């Protein structure tokens, strides 16, 4: 039994793997692999439509919000967002809560002015800034809702009169938010929603077409909306696996139900971190992520031993990112609570034995 | 038995489907699906390296040519190529041999001047222009080596003193060319090389960094080269399936061996088209594609009947593109000669019976 705590690409439901593997051999009794299906076939078009429609349903999106599955990963969105929303003389407000946020800032500067309205960089991004002001004339405010590397998460989305743009790559579909309050949401699929190779974009269509820049065809969200996310050959298999994962999420009761489980998983692990004298959490408590739990050992000399011990129990993917050190356990939607219990027990047992 | 003549995404070797499906369930006896593997793991890094190295080997690339697997499909390259190679005052020469070439032209105009040096548009792209001149000061000459929709192919790559850039999406790895004569080659994987969702780029590193434009990080080929094609999370599964397909190609004897088979397959089908009084090829003979064979029936009223008849034999994907009509049989690397024989026999039998 393997317990997969990978930060991403990461665990997906077992039944999704089984359905995906079967479709690679023979999809829908067609005698063909899903990998050799034309994307314009009725069969695949219905996969794309079901995936988009499940996103709308699970996120309770209103009619202004369009759902796209695009190539390129969130790193492409760092560029595509300002390319579509920001003229050179315009200014956008960005929050600097980690490496991914700071990468988004860097790319926005290619297209317009950027005001960094807050940063937790000085404390190695171990908290979410609360006190900051967003200039009225900012075209939008950009946040990274969950910071995979550091294990922090915006528990409350900042109230703002500006247009709100969010990178939700590492907590999409994990908790209930008022998603209609966002004008643009993007997320690489490879945490809670599917395999790598596809990007979810949710965009309020009313914010598009307001700038003067000529936008290359493949970068203009409006073209993707007009073509139903089929402007060019989509990443067929990645979209298919997203659709399977979204179906699974719906069958579990949707986002509210999975949030409850996610809260339980995170509470179990943070409780052990706080009670076990060998371990310490690395982030400010109130900003702790429910998705990525970062912790170190009070005696760093024991970390290699603990890692080895967890490996012997089938636990994989908990080595911390080099910029934080220690450990990071990612508790994405598909991770069963039983895996968290194995990790918690390992921490207890390790502390007792030494 | 299904005979898959899809234009793309299209047939891949059966053993690739089997290996891919197995890896989705349990990759390398890890107990994990390849879909839940981190891209920075030693296991996946070695997949990426093997895929890149197989491309170098199969295309006999010299040390100046770098191999990248990127997100986005060829439609992204339409933009990325001029963004990296063309300053606003520079001019590039483009050949207009089909819809894809003309899309590349449209995107290049966002970044510099474009001289369309030849076009076969007036004849619905049924031939490859031979007589044209490329201005000496063109930064590069762009060609589409194979035109999927119309069934034409450059049999001889034009001799030019300019830098040569090619979209090889639909004939990459299908025939031997002097690939080192190209400064940049790009190809969506979803014909001969793998599933959709990944793009092969082969670039002579010496042509990069010559322009003044500031290039967004994710669009700059140099960043991808520096990071070994792992600048951001790659489309893991698509790269893996490409690696499997490239392994298969090598085991078949490489590009020269597959070209021989491709020539045989195309010769069989064109012979039937030319000999069978019911059918006519739609392109000029000397420019016929070995990959996509386009033909119509002399009595268009019989086309629906013939299509129905072929479907009863397990033949799929031969309906022609709406802009050409009739039929298109795509004979990519993985299509067995036995499938071509079934189609040829169907044409013979149909003609005899009516």
Characterization of this structure:
The structure is a homodimer of 354-residue chains. Chain A has 354 residues and is of the alpha/beta class. The first copy, chain A, folds into 2 domains: 14-251, Aspartate Aminotransferase, domain 2 (3-Layer(aba) Sandwich), CATH 3.40.640; 254-353, Alpha-Beta Complex (Aspartate Aminotransferase, domain 1), CATH 3.90.1150.10. In chain A, 35% of the residues lie in helices and 17% in strands. In chain A, the strands form 4 sheets. In chain A, strands 2-10-9-8-5-3-4 form a 7-stranded mixed sheet, with helices on both faces. Chain A starts with a strand and ends with a helix. Chains A and B meet through helix 1, helix 3, helix 4 and helix 6 of A and helix 1, helix 3, helix 4 and helix 6 of B.
